[in-house]
Specification:
Layout: E1 3-11, H1 20-42, H2 47-60, E2 80-86, E3 91-98, H3 104-114, E4 119-121, H4 122-131, H5 145-167, E5 182-187, E6 193-199, E7 220-223, E8 227-233, H6 235-240, H7 243-254, H8 258-271, E9 276-282, E10 287-288, E11 295-302, E12 307-310
Parallel strand pairs: 3-4
Antiparallel strand pairs: 1-5, 1-11, 2-3, 2-6, 5-6, 7-8, 8-9, 9-10, 11-12
Helix pairs in contact: 1-2, 2-3, 7-8
The structure holds aspartic acid (ASP).
């Protein structure tokens, strides 16, 4: 059985105001990433290679909050996190707070496969990636005009809200958020399972803040014979619930099926006041894509004939 699932970020996109062009762009790019990852699996490639391939496509696409088009931190910089997990070897690699690595997911894989460490941060992560021969860019490479405008508009909305709060009036300026963290899980022909994620985090995040995305067990986890899970949403909640690991643990120790385990973990996040979504596949290649926000760009495909591409 071959199986792959992807997310392009859970969040409260507004169906009434999202342009048909952007809706179509989401569907086109996530389907393209899915098919490129699936082609790796069909050619006998590993789940790790499929996950990296699919995420690279999404890092390059500007409509997602990863690589080019990423959200900006409080200093107006794209500060990126990515992580990958190999469910066969139980190895993981990750980078956090990087400003110059063109494809953070490839740096995560490099760290997993070429160093004894799991996670590198900031300039040190960049040095490891550079030594590994990965492509480095200026931070401007990641910043699109659209994201810069949303960042500036967000600053104004925040100032207006602070002013309104101070003067006891209400502010009508709605802050638009950047959504679109990306992730992928895959099952290869040898039964190998893998999970990965890449993000710019949350718009206007304080510099140095790291969410669940690159953290093994929180943002992603995989174990051959059990399943693979990747998360998106308000990262602090996924870290505190160790969401991806909790899902696999429920399946492994309590015998829960994929749907029951994922829905229970998402419910535990909701109970704490957090929102988001998850993508998961089990060892039989079944796919589950739950979310508690208004939207999650998502896609899934397996060799049993399933093919899903959805936004809402
Ligand atoms: N989970 C990511 C973070 O908290 C954001 C997202 O998935 O949209 O950094």
């Amino acid at each position: 059985m071959l199986s792959i699932a992807l997310h392009g970020g859970a969040g409260d996109r507004n169906r009434a105001t999202l342009s048909p062009e952007r809706d179509a762009e989401y569907r086109r790019t996530i389907a393209d990433a899915m098919d490129r990852g699936y082609a790796v699996l069909e050619a006998g490639g590993s789940s790790v290679e499929a996950v990296e391939t699919a995420i690279m496509v999404l890092e390059d696409a500007t409509c997602y909050n990863s690589g080019r088009g990423a959200a900006l931190n409080s200093e107006g910089k794209a500060e990126l996190d990515a992580g990958i997990f190999n469910g066969t070897t139980m190895q993981s690699g990750a980078v956090a707070g990087v400003l110059r690595i063109q494809r953070p997911i490839s740096a995560a894989r490099y760290i997993m496969e070429h160093t004894p460490q799991v996670l590198f941060i900031g300039a040190h992560a960049e040095a490891v990636a550079e030594r590994g021969g990965l492509t480095m860019v200026n931070n401007d490479y990641f910043i699109t005009d659209e994201v810069r405008e949303l960042y500036e508009a967000g600053l104004k909305a925040r100032a207006a809200a602070a002013h309104a709060a101070a003067s006891g009036t209400s502010s009508s300026t709605e802050e638009k958020v950047i959504l679109g963290t990306v992730g992928c899980v895959a099952l290869d022909a040898r039964g190998g399972m893998a999970a990965g994620n890449s993000t710019g985090g949350i718009m206007h995040k304080p510099a140095g803040r790291v969410g669940d995305t690159p953290l093994a067990g929180a943002g992603m986890y995989a174990m051959d014979g059990v399943g693979a899970v990747a998360c998106t949403g308000h990262g602090e909640y996924f870290v505190r619930t160790v969401a991806a690991h909790d899902t696999i643990a429920r399946m492994r120790y309590a015998g829960a099926d994929l749907v029951t385990a994922m829905d229970a973990v998402l419910a535990s996040i909701t109970a704490l006041g957090g929102r988001g979504g998850m993508i998961g596949i089990d060892a039989t290649g079944s796919i589950h894509l739950p979310f508690s926000t208004s939207s999650m760009v998502r896609a899934g495909r397996n060799s049993a004939g399933v093919r899903v591409v959805e936004v809402w």
